[in-house]
Write the structure tokens for this entry.
Amino acid sequence: MDLWVRLYMNTQKNWNIKMRVFVTGGAGYIGNHTCVELLEAGHEVFVIDNLCNGHEAALERVQDIANRDLQFTNFRYSCRKSIR
């Protein structure tokens, strides 16, 4: 079953399926809207983004809107120091 179908079913039928979701690009437009929906559905959200097209302030707004915390890591794959 597709992840989006499971998320939709979880939010529509009030099932008690809670997931830890890893969102890449979560500080961008689509990513932060996705994070809001996931947090409001009760999931635990981990965001990784290099902030190339996103902003850390957007993630702060996500937390304010959903009234829940998420975890964020600024990660740049091209920077070898980030990998270690």
